Amino acid sequence: MYKKILVPTDGSEAAEKEVEKVGDLLAEDGEIIILSVASELTPHQFQSKEDIDKLNQSFLDEAQFNVDKMKAKFDPNLNVTTKVLVGFPAETIVKVAEEEDVGLIAISSSGKGRVTKFFIGSVAEKVIHSFKKDVLLVH
Amino acid sequence: MYKKILVPTDGSEAAEKEVEKVGDLLAEDGEIIILSVASELTPHQFQSKEDIDKLNQSFLDEAQFNVDKMKAKFDPNLNVTTKVLVGFPAETIVKVAEEEDVGLIAISSSGKGRVTKFFIGSVAEKVIHSFKKDVLLVH
User: Fold this and answer.
1) Model confidence pLDDT, tens digit, residues B82-125
2) How many angstroms separate the CA atoms of A27 and A59, rounded?
3) DSSP A17-63
4) Contact residues for A87 (Cβ-Cβ < 8 A; gap 6+)
5) Which residues form the UspA domain (chains A, B) (predicted)?
6) Chain A partners of B17 at a C-beta cutoff of 8 Å?
7) B136 contacts A136 by C-beta, under 8 angstroms
8) Which of B3, B5, B7, B21 to mutate to test the interface with A (most CBs of A within 10 A)?
9) Strand pairing category for A2-8 and A104-108
């Protein structure tokens, strides 16, 4: 059993499918942290600052929507918190996992509708190569 | 919770370290299958058939030792069976997982004292790319 479990989500069906099973892995007084990472756009010559700000806000809104949707999948009796951050997904996931000292990252093995050479998504791939504790790849 | 969990072991400390935690993930009437894969030597011009047979037998003995050692780590009340097979480790692990229709493979993320470019061992790496269901990488 784990005291802290990090559950990243990109809002995809894959991320949500059966990830709720991680509730079974949580110690009685444990905490589940749901995280969605919004990509940050940098200014581009063909876009106005206003457009960029709007897009960044829409990414943040989407990330918030993702974590709320995921939270609703868990037993309401569990201690579930949510986080929305801006950054690169894999790096941010591992950073949060380390800062929060989670014992397990439970992540979908497939990415957001991507067709990859391998079976697992690139974010999951990076996470398992960077995180020094347990990772549950959920299919 | 999982009805069937496959726990491969190469006899390394890494493989045994905390892998026993998977007992918590097992459904009440579930089964843990511990597997060790012995490599098979093929005849070599500088070795007699007798020597090859002896080596193959010693690999099988070691694999049997590995699964017995791992089995002793689990709660005796759990339904734990063991398997020893000859073959390539990653391929054999996935083949058994598919044949036995396990829901989870729980595998150590580090190999047998290997220094790898990445954090996870090559067998675990191959397993996560081939197995189409959940994988717990235990650190």
Assistant:
1) 999 999 999 999 999 999 999 999 998 876 544 444 557 788 88
2) 33
3) TTGGGGGGGEEEEEEEEEEEEE------TTS-HHHHHHHHHHHHHHH
4) A37, A38, A39, A40, A95
5) 1-139
6) none
7) yes
8) B21
9) parallel
Record the tokens describing residue B98, joined without a space: 């598919």
CATH number for the domain spanning A129: value is 3.40.50.620
| Contact residues, chain A, for B120 at CB < 8 Å | 128-129
ipTM: 0.84
Length, in residues, of chain A: 139
Compute φ and ψ for B98, nearest 5 degrees. -75, -45
Q: What is the DSSP letter of B103?
A: S
- Whole domain around residue A132: which residue ranges? 2-138
Task: Give B40-73 pLDDT, tens digit per residue.
Answer: 777 766 678 888 888 888 999 999 999 999 999 9
Ramachandran angles phi, psi of B80, nearest 5°: -120, 120
Question: Tell me, what amino acid is at A136?
Answer: L
> Cα–Cα distances in Å, from A120 out to A70, A124, B124?
20, 7, 13
- Cα separations in angstroms, A8 against A75, A85, B78: 17, 11, 32
How many structural domains comprise chain B? 1
Distance CA A46, CA B58 (A): 68
Cβ of B55 under 8 Å from any chain A Cβ?
no
Chain B residues with CB-CB distance to A138 below 8 A: 134
